[in-house]
Records
---
Amino acid sequence: MEYAVSTRDLTRAFGNFVAVNKVSINIKKGEIYGFLGPNGSGKSTTIRMLCGILEPTSGSGSVLGYKLPGEAEKIKRKIGYMSQKFSLYEDLTVYENLDFYAGVYSVPARERRKRIGEMVEMAQLKGRENEMAASLSGGWKQRLALGCAIISRPSILFLDEPTSGISPTSRRMFFKIIQRMAGEGTTVMVTTHYMDEAERCHRIAFISEGSLIAEDTPDNLRNNAIKGCMVEVAVPDALGAADGIAGLPCVKECSIHGSVLHVLLESEGSLRELEQKTGFKAKIIRPSLEDVFIFLAREARRKVF
């Protein structure tokens, strides 16, 4: 199979600090591939290498058939790239921003008006073409930025924390647009730390401290990654109770999720023991992707130390 993105042992070091450590991934054409991890885990560095912005320290890869690091300039001309710091020109209108990026991406003059109209439609900005970008809310700005990034109709789109700082409603709407694009054949690689966005990806990879620790579909990760029995415990003071519960012999992990605790037990048979020792009721739940990531990150750390 020919992949849109393929890497082998891709590594980037800054002095003695290894930001990305031997990452090997394959992304299918037309797939939404989520790249998840906390701040500082290596997500953005990986994306910047794949976009040809940063040169790998070692390892190799290809994007749309072009080799990394040797054909970085060819890669840049074929991709769409958007980050949370994507530069809209706030003193230009919606239309003028789209027209400017159409020029940057060398969209032929005869096609520009049509492409700009398509992007306005996609971003649901019809009627607002003459508004200054500075006057748009965060969610509208993100959709305009997406329009600017894809006006050249790239085969692959790299999104680096594209929905950071916007409302949950705007994030959902943004992802619906991404899903529609993927349905039309665009390959999308998106970095995020929002687990609800990860649920909408075809496959996801977890990265922690520069290393890939898991890769699969969201369903497979929830069903198979965690060894043990996950339960939810409602307690009056989740923060205050967490340490005590984490120290019980039958408990493998304990994490705070809002006003409740998610507790990983050795087995379903430990449920009664947990309730007897704490006095709190517990119910068995399906692990969330956040539960999976916490478990895998701690397991990876244990192997290192």
---
Amino acid sequence: MGVEAATIVAHEPIAEATWRLRLDCPSLAANARPGQFAMVRIPDRQDPLLARPLAVYDTFGALADPTCWLPARAAATAKALRYADFVYAVAGKFTTAATRLKPGEQLTLWGPLGNGFTLPKAEHLLLVAGGIGQTALLMLGRAWLAANPAGRVSFCWGAREAGLFGHVEDFRNAGMAVELATLDGTVGTRGSVIDLLDSLAGQNKIAGGSRTAIACCGPEGMMAAVSNWAANRGIDCQVSLETPMACGIGICFSCVAPVRDREGGWDYRRTCVEGPIFDGQSIAWEATV
């Protein structure tokens, strides 16, 4: 982990109340693993004072045009990676202030932080996102396909309505099948992401047991439902918790999550250092409500 000043290269809205941010931050880009995050702060500001955690959405090496959101990915070694992308939803004081930042301005960040995903052993990887949860999953899908060229990845994304989906083509361009669900039925399956999973399973597009693995990120209720859905079918499920954080390095204990112990009870674990990735069955979801 290191602290660095990062210059904004590109920054613009990509969906309803959703923005994509590209930073020139070689150290973070070279070291980030799928599922890790960075603490990002607007410098020289007292309000908001604290940094906020943002999942590393993607990393890039040298680009012909670093302001283009859909560049041909550079064939680069880890040492040549330079840019990191973050996607955030406008929901509070920090993200509202962030929307006013322009290319050329700087942010302060430290990371990468957290444990990151484990590449699952399976034939089919399901990436399941709700809301802004796609931000934790793109790098995992790409890394898993690189390690399992004969495997397949399905990206399942649920939202209230079609206007909340931004840059879905990132997943398609990486070789993943994309399945969408909206509560209002404006695109894809009408209903929740669980309805989408049920539909795919009913079409024999999802096998139970060890042939399939799930990685999930989104609202807690949605991740609890996906974890239960996976457990009922004998499918391993990793979840990326989006617990609010203040420091990102385990000092403040503001990001604790209830994790089950071997005796059947549970205790709090720091999401920033012992997560944010956990086995979905290890979370005491009833204690998160």
---
Amino acid sequence: MTKFAVIGHPVAHSLSPVIHRANFESIGFDGSYEKFDVAPEDVEAFVRGKQRESYAGLNVTVPHKLAVIPLLDHVDESVARYGACNTLKFEKDGTITGYNTDVIGFVEGLRGNGFELAGKSVFIVGCGGAGSALATACCYEKAASLVLADLDDVRVAALAAKLNALGTATKVAALAEPTVGASLDERKTAWGKSAAVAELVVNATPMGLHPGEPSALPPECFHSGQFVLDIVPTVTFPPTAAAAKAAGAMATDGLDFLVAQGAKSFEIWTGLHADRAAMRAACVQV
């Protein structure tokens, strides 16, 4: 049996085992897929341990997509370009290769809903591993403009500077208002003003993973004519996407995103074609 897993902190919400097991069953693959909650300080020891236990690969979710990069012996172009890693492949020679399949899930998901990034205005809240990769993809996919927001002012400013240095045609700005010390509600109000004028709004924060959590953005910033992607992959429609949909925007959650990136991870690990339809159907049935 070929062994895989996803690591994160927290990770209880993850539907990755559901979609991968559905794929295994559909194509007749002898595999197992688990999920492990790994504290940040334990990431290296855990990854090395699974490598010794003959796991074939790991998926990596919040907050470890940057922390695993120093552990890589080989860096795929996707990690080098997008600056985050969500897929580890344990090679037969004892080395580790890192990949980023989040961007594939992002672009494929948008196109599947009839949305092309080229020439569009984009607002992204959340500049961690996933958010930074998606922001970079917007530049390479020729978005007209991109505004970034995050609770960490230093992180968002650094990402904006990095993306502007790429030399693409996309105009990138960091939303630095209000200043340090502002409450979350004050920040959301500022974020909402920028989100309201964007054609694509992306929630790349984990807000909405837990029951009862509010939208990452104020509901009044959403309106018809927008496309809103909430990458939170939960069985119930996550709150940011739900608020957008209620306001008349076209909104989608993180399930298509999850399936696309997960399918690509499986194909990297095994060289086999994943059954995306079976993976998507398994999410709906949970």
---
Amino acid sequence: MPYKTPQMDTSSSQGRLPLGIGLMLLASAVGIMAGFGSWIIKVSIGHMASLFLSWMRDDGGINWYIGALPFAGIFLAVAYQRFVVHASLEHGSDQVRRDLQERRFYMRRGLCYQPFIASILTLGFGGSAGAEGPCATVGAALGSNLSRKLGMAPEIVRVMMGCGAGAGIAGIFKAPVAGMMFTLEVMKVRIGTMSVMALTLASLCGALTCYALTGFSFDIRFMPSAFFDWRTSGWVIALGVFCGLYSVYYNRVAAMLGKFFNRIGNVWLRAAAGSAMAGIALLLFPCMYGEGYGTITALVNGNDAGILAGSLWTGHDGDVWLLVSLASAIMLLKVFATIASNSSGGVAGDFAPTVFAGAFAGFVFARCVSALFGVELPVGLFCLYGAAGAFAGIIHAPLMAIFLAAEIVGNGYGFILPLAMVSLTSYLVMKLLTPASRYAGADHDDLAALLGTPPIPMYNDKDNNKRPGSR
């Protein structure tokens, strides 16, 4: 029997708003709160990063203090989780996805703010990751707790969790469509037409709230110096293949490092190992500090001067092959710094790091093509294309990659065709070599659905919706 999405009762009762209107109002409230939270974490991390990076020497010497900052951030985050929260906040978006899969819709109230504090400690002190994971977790918790407080049915609570998670992503990236795609494509939340409308509204509110509070500006300021030339289509597809192969490397190294950290039973020893790994990466390449939006801004605008700023190779930007070699090293080391930051006790996300790594992949590809074949490609545009390609392959989310790359720079919709070309190519290469997504189990993955695996049943009102052992 074919799977059918259950329909919510939209009839109104005397003295109450129609459910459709109530759902939209609730989604708007969740979106605004998630957007406000995204602004709080963005401003806090930005101020801390500006303070610490202002001390950095740029004469080619070693910035020893930068290597020590991840120790402070990760150990403080571990202490906060162990002695204050008394629970792990790592990989929160993965836990939200599992809760949705297993029909656990009631998230504890502390998750409405605790991931923010842990993430500010992790990223403000130099953790090489992103803030989107905690934003998605907090958004989902806001949706769960607000709808539960209002006495909503469990099915509405489930929808609001998805709306909150999407609004959190939309807020931190200021990308409403990307936030929607996160809920639908990455979290794979199955919802009906009215719920999609609520998700759209929540994502718009989240993105616009954070956008307005940050002065109507985007994190990556993109000033394109050229338009897409159809004659470069072959090279765009080739970049997609390159990004797909890089995605295989990224995910396999991430899985290996995840197992490595999981084998370390002592939380403090695990934090020390991760801090050392992240600290060494920052010592070599300070541009990997935090989310790295400043470096991405420079790359997509064709400015490679910031790649080596504060490193041992400051001032050697004129040597093309040295620059390409160092950019390749950054691209390969980024996964080590990211997993060390968010799998050793730190609390962060891994969407922004894939955008960062993809921009470097596009830079390396364009510079190598120019040097080897004499073809002058627009380096800045290929950095933007590479960001979308790496995201599509690593996250297994080509649609989200297309819209995220277009929205995060504010004016990227003019390049939607090449973004789609590189994203879909990278995704197909990644799927060919690694079918299962790292963000979903085999019975929840899109490939499994194509092969005929039955979907996970939705929440049934007859269930009691309680965690095992709860009362």
